[in-house]
Amino acid sequence: MKRINSLLLLLCSISMLSFGQFKLPDLSYKYNALEPYIDSTTMHIHHDLHHATYVNNLNKTLEKYPELYKKDLLELIQNINELPTDIQLAVRNNGGGVWNHSFFWKIMAAPGTAPMSAAMTKLLTDNFGTVDAFKAEFEKAAVGRFGSGWAWLIKEPSGKLRIISTPNQDNPLMSSAEIKGKPILTLDVWEHAYYLKYQNKRAAYAKAFWNVVNWTEVERLTGN
Ligand SMILES: [Fe+2]
Hints:
The protein is built from nine helices and three strands, in the order ααααααβββααα. The protein is mostly helical.
């Protein structure tokens, strides 16, 4: 009986440890897949350490309110103002960090493997005049973001595409966002995303980014 109780206690502890906690998603490509534009070492540090830290910190933040582990991450960050006030900022920073990085990995692909289609070219041309004008405006948003943050291409509720940037780990889905919309494309402009290879040349990193955009995924996101 004592043995069964110990076993039950062990199983219970394991299930409590793993219950609903947020996990670090794997990359869908190899760490060196984005070379030479984004190097393997940066990808290891960025995914295995920075992204993982946001996941761990989010889980730690929610320890006090374990019922929140049952929520979808998107639901959490879209309703930050409805969370207990003592964890709102930590969920904004760490929940945002988890969501933004998971999204960022998905909109990139090995160079040349997911080129821009004619339909996507037309969509960008319709919204920004030319693809080059779109790229220039996006790069400007990336370079112009003071300190750390993200550049975004979003789809507004009207269907129009728009370029914005957000500070820290904020994103256009959050209840606190000044401009809301569906994320279509993003670029992480925190120094940890580029400093090893590009040092202080954020503009060069933003320009190189076009070589690793997964336009197939970006186009898919423009739907609905
Ligand atoms: Fe990052």
